[in-house]
Amino acid sequence: GGIITQTPKFLIGQEGQKLTLKCQQNFNHDTMYWYRQDSGKGLRLIYYSITENDLQKGDLSEGYDASREKKSSFSLTVTSAQKNEMAVFLCASSIKGLSNERLFFGHGTKLSVL
Amino acid sequence: QQKVQQSPESLSVPEGGMASFNCTSSDRNFQYFWWYRQHSGEGPKALMSIFSDGDKKEGRFTAHLNKASLHVSLHIRDSQPSDSALYFCAASEPTDKVVFGTGTRLQVSP
Fold it and tell me: Chain B, 30-89: which have a CB under 8 Å from a chain A CB?
């Protein structure tokens, strides 16, 4: 079995601040994802990457940057945190990124912006 | 417009009872459906997939798919307090990324 580790677990930022969230997986999966989870809105895709150094925008990419410098890691940057923003950011991976594959998720990073 | 709609928003069942979740999609191109479960403080975990019309049973869990009506459901028999969680339906087209529903919160009371 493998695991997806997200750091930090909790992140408190100031309005306008640039914030970086990190994700590591040891499944040796090709594809990694970043989702945002807001109460009552399900999971929305921010960015995904099908291989090292690849980046693909999801439905919610505006206001975010991502980086996949190694196969095992995928980071997400909030370019300018919005006041009172509160959400959980979930990292996930899948073997090849095929549409019928299951996703494996980390435990999430909870963001609060003061 | 939400492409994957789930109902109800929340559900409360007694221990040992049956919990039922519904999911309707608005996209006839969706071919692959998954159910995920998320316990508090954790990430979602895949419960089961269903890709063909009909029923699929795995232990206490049964999924049902009707592509003609764009409807998929999940039933949990003999519900346990440990089943209390947020349940997501997820759907995808053959050449596109998965879309998640907004979730149904289940509370199983002892």
Answer: 31-32, 34, 36, 41-46, 49, 51, 88
